[in-house]
Request: fold
Amino acid sequence: MIRCAIIGATGFTGVELIKILLRHPHAEITCLTSRQDSPPALSLLVSGLSKKSKLKLEKFQLAKVVKGSDVVFLCLPHTESAPVAVKLLKAGKVVIDLGADFRLNSAAAYVKWYGGWKHPEPALLKQAVYGLTEFYRAEVKQANLIANPGCYPTGASLGLIPLLKKKLIDPSSIVIDSKSGTSGAGRKLCQATFYGTVNENFKAYRVGKHQHTPEIEMAARVAGGASKLDFSFVPHLLPVERGILTTIHAKKHKGVTDAKLRQVFQNTYNSEAFVRVLGRDEFPDLKQVQNTNFCEIGLTAPKGSDWIVVVTAIDNLIKGASGQAVQNMNVRFGFSETEGFE
Amino acid sequence: MIRCAIIGATGFTGVELIKILLRHPHAEITCLTSRQDSPPALSLLVSGLSKKSKLKLEKFQLAKVVKGSDVVFLCLPHTESAPVAVKLLKAGKVVIDLGADFRLNSAAAYVKWYGGWKHPEPALLKQAVYGLTEFYRAEVKQANLIANPGCYPTGASLGLIPLLKKKLIDPSSIVIDSKSGTSGAGRKLCQATFYGTVNENFKAYRVGKHQHTPEIEMAARVAGGASKLDFSFVPHLLPVERGILTTIHAKKHKGVTDAKLRQVFQNTYNSEAFVRVLGRDEFPDLKQVQNTNFCEIGLTAPKGSDWIVVVTAIDNLIKGASGQAVQNMNVRFGFSETEGFE
Amino acid sequence: MIRCAIIGATGFTGVELIKILLRHPHAEITCLTSRQDSPPALSLLVSGLSKKSKLKLEKFQLAKVVKGSDVVFLCLPHTESAPVAVKLLKAGKVVIDLGADFRLNSAAAYVKWYGGWKHPEPALLKQAVYGLTEFYRAEVKQANLIANPGCYPTGASLGLIPLLKKKLIDPSSIVIDSKSGTSGAGRKLCQATFYGTVNENFKAYRVGKHQHTPEIEMAARVAGGASKLDFSFVPHLLPVERGILTTIHAKKHKGVTDAKLRQVFQNTYNSEAFVRVLGRDEFPDLKQVQNTNFCEIGLTAPKGSDWIVVVTAIDNLIKGASGQAVQNMNVRFGFSETEGFE
Amino acid sequence: MIRCAIIGATGFTGVELIKILLRHPHAEITCLTSRQDSPPALSLLVSGLSKKSKLKLEKFQLAKVVKGSDVVFLCLPHTESAPVAVKLLKAGKVVIDLGADFRLNSAAAYVKWYGGWKHPEPALLKQAVYGLTEFYRAEVKQANLIANPGCYPTGASLGLIPLLKKKLIDPSSIVIDSKSGTSGAGRKLCQATFYGTVNENFKAYRVGKHQHTPEIEMAARVAGGASKLDFSFVPHLLPVERGILTTIHAKKHKGVTDAKLRQVFQNTYNSEAFVRVLGRDEFPDLKQVQNTNFCEIGLTAPKGSDWIVVVTAIDNLIKGASGQAVQNMNVRFGFSETEGFE
Reply:
């Protein structure tokens, strides 16, 4: 049994981790910490928790976490993971960071996209492995510091990488139009998460300036073998709780047919446990992936047009966060990738 | 007082027309027809209808409609408007068709995009004026047959036309990613409009084959002064009742700045009663336009990127249908364009 | 033209008042005040506001309000209306208070149900007229201080009063089970109005201690001619924005039939412009009354049971607040009751 | 391993059963049948199903079901279970019927409440055990035919039975005001399940005539030790997918205090794995029980009133259907009651 600690266990991703790990046959939760002085009862956060459950929240104590865990999941706000991670790594723990602190491979990118933040551990940026499991499996297997991908980048990369890798599209023509449920914004109370604001509404936000832009650029470029990418990425807020649907538009290279496009995706994902490529004229919706670790992908190259469209759907809290984190843990510790999900 | 008949008054657009015309100081509703044998009571369809209202539904009788009306609004399914319109035009009525039968200027386009339909009155396609009021005002003023634009084309065209007219973008780079509330699908009961299907869900549909594609192409090309357009258009279904948000991405021509972009839109729409161009960093949402005839537009040309983004929001049933129809009636009969809306 | 001031114009009820009064042929809005230092633009609050509208928000200044208005609508939080009202009354204005400060006729009741609040103007409690228009029309016509009813009490009283007045039920058997949309909680941001809390959820709240309990008791008892009432009132929070549905259960007196029940309601409300009594087997829903000033009522006395059920539906912001306020203004100033609504 | 067959596996309750049984360590699904000629793919119905799953739908064949199963779950529409159950019982199978055909203990009650239906197997009505696990555990342990309770009756009975058993209330004063998510209506497409009808709406339905009325009466009366009950039961339709909240109002007997009430419920449910009695001033909501087999209960006896209020919340598809069915299977086959749920 792998002993698991979750640091920041009361947020949405922490709670999903608890749910997945409770079903995992080879993992036990040994430590749950919260920064709150009086956090809500776990039974209120984790619906369905057994009346006899002995899980409890505690304050973070480094020594205790180190002693009681083999792997530590960090579910902390940006800027708070880095200082904790460095200590846990020194103590020999495997660290899976669900935050943004180790996703980008350049300290300069944090300055530009994360409000001027100077990364306190730039050396670790090289050591961290980007945990997009399907494309970094070999690296994850060896990693002690896994930077779990962001939700938008997961949905975008799984659709973009095959297009780039197989050179099906003009890389200067890419549009990524993403739509996320509200849980992506976490539990914070603000005008944007007010029921009266979200319900029966829809909007674009952070147009041209969302902090996931450089992560998508890096993830798709590196795994896709492209040089610098200049795409248009616009995130939108859906009046639903869970799920991200990403519509990718790009201009295909001459001679790329619908059949070719389909074949590339099938070859790429055929043996993947958590990616489903849908059939002709089928496109994913959020219901099909909510509460699962699946990414579903639909695609088309309409006749008479230079454009192709790829649509991906994930649950932002599972495949876009906690599910992928457990998938990475499974890879890292040699379990079957589907443990905890079936 | 202009006497108004509504043919097909029990659908969503018919009901909206009733509501708007009831508030119109120079219009009176003289005839409401329904194809149903036992239509629901008007008080169930038009919430807020006075207990003393004398409005009633009747079966369509050409002679009666001709005798009792000055303007006839057709709210009929595709293929049903054309035969009715031709008779009403012969009888000297002004016809405003909220359906698709006269929107395209080529009978061939109907064959291709509307399931092989052979238009029964191809000669009328030349006579019909496309009622995108802001760009066809002069023509509407003279028209006896007004083809009221579709909902997606309205939202897309109001964003695209200024870009094309002022040659701000590469016309081969356009992506139109649209998201519509469910009322766009009308009242029909099917798996796609089942509560359990729509709620907490989101999906793309008719990707690469939506029948509004040629209408957007025609509307944007003609008013924008472009030659043939090959864009990517993907409509999506939102779990909300009303509203369409359209996110337009395109690659700007060298030297086009955010300021220039903004100025073009302000100049274009400054004197329009129903189009609001939002300020820097402001983007529209559906709430701001629901139950209004407004189109709100946000835009940006992010630094360091070749892309620009324009987002438009309308109420699909008002500016995207019945509101624009009344706006067109106002233009045609010489009323202030805002009558009925304030 | 009646000159109208709205004090506290940026809350939900203030905004609804603006919308209704803008359509009112005999009213003009002369003053809108907000307590906020930097309130949002009116065009963001009042969707559909004309681009040419000259309405603007200002800080409250007594002298200016007194000089510029004939009637003043108070849309202020509890405890804030009373001190303002007394000054406006002294200046000879007609005051319509949409808050709770003058609804109860006893200062002691405020102490008990409103957190120990000592009413600063107990003498005015006798002078204030309870503005449940259908049952206090004669008094409203003469009143200078109108206490506009609360949302739950409006829906409950319109269902209960005919039952009590005509002695159809055992007054000790009454259950009032109410379900409200979230706009009843106003614009405040808190855990209870967080999208993730409300969406796909439902709950009872303030069970046995809601502050509308004594108002319902007073309103139903006085107009219904009963002595003290001990009913069970439980409010619930619906994942919708607008509307209150109230299900009233009570044990009927021997010999009361479904037909008798129906007849009493029809007689009571037949000549009312804003109350619709539905037919046998018909029950109201929220859609039918949203954005209207209507109260719809369904009822039944099932065979073989001692119970009767009366269900009422209103829009909490219109008939349950701003609509009824304008209805009261119409009565007070001698206009047709439906002005502003049609 | 217990071999499980599900007859009618494509409905909402069938799909939930699949999900629960897939997680059950001592059960395997050996047969899934559907009456549809071309049912949707299981992967579309059961989101998260492994890409390698070998589960498949087949047409019902008695011999095959008999040979391949130990327990058979019937998820069939009313009137269709009875003929199938009798054959399976003769073949020695344990039958758990999630439909209504064996819930009532009198054929006459079916005639009255189920549209005149003459029960084809009245003798089996005596043999069937009502599967409200918490109160019929001993009987379930011995039963070969288990009538799994309806969703409304489960939520109502768990709140009512302790009140009646301990004689805390006047049994003639009971009001059961229930609110259900839309999945209770199943997958059928009709005006009532149209997105535009349900969304942002709320209504009472089948007032005074819902077919669960006699089941609640029987369940509460028998387990509660009361004589005939005449209560008011009104079901309502919530714009959410899952969950039933039931608000029970009743007049308490003299001397019953809040503390006494609380103690009775705690004593009743303290050792139950799936019933949580909440603390003072705490009331359940649907989120806490969705996707779980829990029933949560809040209660109060407000000072100064003769009334008490008990609120229960369940997931209609789990505790109100498939979860309780598996709970019953666990009891019947001697497993821990929580197997499959943790």
About this structure: Chain A has a mean pLDDT of 96. The interface with chain B takes residues 172-173, 175, 177, 179, 197, 200-205, 207-209, 230-232, 234, 236, 238-243, 245, 247, 249, 251, 283-287, 290, 298, 300, 302, 305-307, 309, 311 of chain A (CB under 8 Å). The radius of gyration of chain A is 20 Å. The longest helix of chain A spans residues 318-333.
